[in-house]
């Protein structure tokens, strides 16, 4: 039984993800804008039941209100963000499971980018929605958390199965990869991934999803051995 996942490019470089079960149950992850989501729902005659938010930033939540108004969808979001995300029906904390049809969505608390950030892991589909915690070959800026927070969050993601497909919130892959190559110029897997990414981008194709196995080989932030190393990389990237 498979979960269907559509990437919907929104705003400047964000992705929202439309999830559909074989029974026609439908959810959207991180709708930073409503209209592009409504267009897809209308075109495919789908009814939206749930909105999943990884964190409170506007580019992941600004579509919430209009989607709720248009569809009556209910909001699944971090329990700790009740003050900053309005109308949460299903507040999730570490280890909580949101039941989406026959699919379990495990909430993994991944603070660092924001203090309330969560990621959603669905073992049956083998997919992770990690918002702005982990990007392909990058990681989120530390707006509200420490390097230690982000390091622990990335370790939790690292512990998931290698074959997990990672769906992150932004198409930052090409510039992230260039930074990784400046740190690890001799990394062959990284050079290979960059060739693939260049080809994809030239064709206007998303570089997402990416397997966790590939990220472990290519993402210098995920490869950092400790919080100090991660913090130094993040600072360097901030000033790159
Ligand atoms: Zn963000
Ligand atoms: Fe974002």
Write the SSE topology.
Elements: E1 4-10, E2 14-20, E3 26-29, H1 35-43, E4 48-52, H2 58-61, H3 64-71, E5 74-78, E6 88-92, E7 97-100, E8 103-109, E9 118-122, E10 127-129, E11 134-135, E12 138-139, H4 147-158, E13 165-167, H5 173-183, H6 188-202, E14 210-211, H7 212-218, H8 220-223, H9 227-238
Parallel strand pairs: 3-4, 4-5, 5-6, 10-13
Antiparallel strand pairs: 1-2, 2-3, 7-8, 8-9, 9-10, 11-12, 13-14
Bound molecules: zinc ion and fe (iii) ion.
Word description of this protein:
The protein has a single domain, classed as 4-Layer Sandwich (Metallo-beta-lactamase, Chain A), CATH 3.60.15. Helices cover 34% and strands 25% of the residues. It is built from nine helices and 14 strands. The protein has helices at 35-43, 58-61, 64-71, 147-158, 173-183, 188-202, 212-218, 220-223, 227-238; strands spanning 4-10, 14-20, 26-29, 48-52, 74-78, 88-92, 97-100, 103-109, 118-122, 127-129, 134-135, 138-139, 165-167, 210-211. Strands 1-2-3-4-5-6 form a six-stranded mixed beta sheet, covered by helices on one side. Strands 7-8-9-10-13-14 form a six-stranded mixed beta sheet. The chain has a two-stranded antiparallel ribbon with strand order 11-12. It is globular, with a radius of gyration of 17 Å. The model has no long low-confidence stretch (mean pLDDT 97). The structure holds zinc ion (ZN) and fe (iii) ion. Zinc ion binds at residues 55, 57, 113, 132. Residues 55, 57, 113, 132 line the site of zinc ion (ZN).
């Amino acid at each position: 039984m498979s979960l269907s996942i559509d990437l919907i490019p929104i705003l400047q470089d964000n992705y929202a993800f439309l999830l559909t079960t074989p029974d026609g149950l439908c959810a959207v992850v991180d709708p930073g804008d409503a209209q592009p989501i409504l267009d897809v729902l209308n075109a495919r005659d789908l009814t939206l039941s749930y909105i999943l938010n990884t964190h409170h930033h506007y580019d992941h939540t600004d579509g919430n209100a209009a989607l709720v108004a248009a569809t009556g969808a209910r909001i699944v979001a971090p329990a700790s963000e009740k003050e900053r995300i309005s109308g949460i029906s299903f507040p999730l904390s570490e280890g909580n499971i949101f039941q989406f049809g026959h699919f379990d969505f495990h909430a993994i608390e991944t603070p660092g980018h924001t203090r309330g950030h969560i990621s959603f892991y669905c073992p049956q589909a083998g997919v992770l929605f990690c918002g702005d915690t982990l990007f392909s070959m990058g990681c989120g800026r530390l707006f509200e958390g420490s390097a230690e927070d982000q390091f622990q969050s990335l370790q939790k993601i690292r512990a998931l199965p290698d074959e997990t497909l990672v769906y992150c919130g932004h198409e930052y892959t090409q510039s992230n990869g260039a930074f990784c190559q400046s740190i690890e110029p001799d990394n062959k897997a990284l050079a290979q991934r960059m060739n693939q990414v260049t080809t994809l981008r030239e064709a206007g194709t998303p570089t997402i999803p990416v397997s966790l196995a590939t990220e472990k080989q290519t993402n210098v932030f995920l490869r950092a051995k400790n919080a100090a190393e991660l913090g130094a990389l993040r600072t360097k990237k901030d000033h790159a």
